[in-house]
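Re-run requested by the PI after the first attempt was lost when the workstation crashed. Everything re-entered from the original request form. Ligand of interest: 4'-deoxy-4'-aminopyridoxal-5'-phosphate.
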Amino acid sequence: MGAPAMHERANIRRMAGYVPGERPAAPAVKLNTNENPLAPGDAVMRALSEITPAMLQRYPDPLATRLRSAIADYHECGVDRVIVTNGSDELLRLAVTTFGAPGHAIGLVEPGYSLYGVLAQIQDCPVARVALEDDWTIPTDIAARWNKAGAKLAFLANPQAPTGALLSARAIARLAAEFRGVLLVDEAYIDFVDPTQAHDIVSLIDQTANLLIVRTLSKGHSLAGLRLGYGLGRESLVTPMLTKVRDSYNVDVIAQHLGCAAFADMGHARTSWQLVREERDRVARELGDLGIVTLPSQANFLLADIPSAFGDAQTLHALLASQGVHVRWFDVPRLRGRLRISIGTRAENDQLLSAIEASLVVRT
Ligand code: PMP
């Protein structure tokens, strides 16, 4: 560290950078970064055992054709509409580099995934932040406000982070039609949506030239440690990122091979999605019984409003951490009184609920 700041670009000097959730020492109940409660299944672990020295000796397929074809088959779209990346975070960065013109705004929703704003700062783009309404819904005139700010690119997480709310396919189609820039819909948590509410916006790509869908294997496929994400969009959006902006070998041999295995056998992933849905409902109900209200969530986390009986949310966060139960507290105006709790295994969720209940007993 200690490098002279004078060489940094002014926007880099000004910015604070993204701070990921802590990585507690094991054993811990880790409910702070929205990973999958289950480890990857047998098919993926078998694929890992198939990695040979020769595979590691050579560079990976720069176009990741086998993996992109597997993803194209899963989504029933052309392979030219698929790009794979080193986690979906890399795709967010590529989108900013490719579509975010320095000096021109990037549209955001506030509160939201804080990396979006950090990426905008790196690119020296001002941000057009649109605050969620008091009831946490997205303002109906959001596209008009982004347009007014001249935004070339806008980020929208669906389900929304950190609320877990889901926008309908119709609402997204309307937004894409109204917004004049590239609309990046970040579906990091889409796999956990209840089947009764599920929708598929991939077919919208045919009618919508400015829609870029972002997905990840970190959440729904239990592969956060592997770093594999992908994007789906018209060739006019995907090709420049794929052929000009991305590093040639952005997805390594292991990620390409394991990614193919993950798409070849979805059974384990689907089991984890169902577990998350059931536990999400149970945890929300049991928190409710303790007097803690959560927002309706379609993701693998709950945003919990911490009442004063538990002290303030930041103190409860620290108390839980001291007992090995890690959840997320955000130092952001709208979120300071809340905790974001990832859904874990049944046993982990039980530990969380007991620790919260015990904190109430300690106080009363
Ligand atoms: N989008 C959202 C909304 C997220 O919460 C996250 C995880 N922090 C990501 C994208 C990035 O996921 P990954 O890079 O692991 O694919």
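Saved to the shared folder this time. The mean pLDDT is 95.
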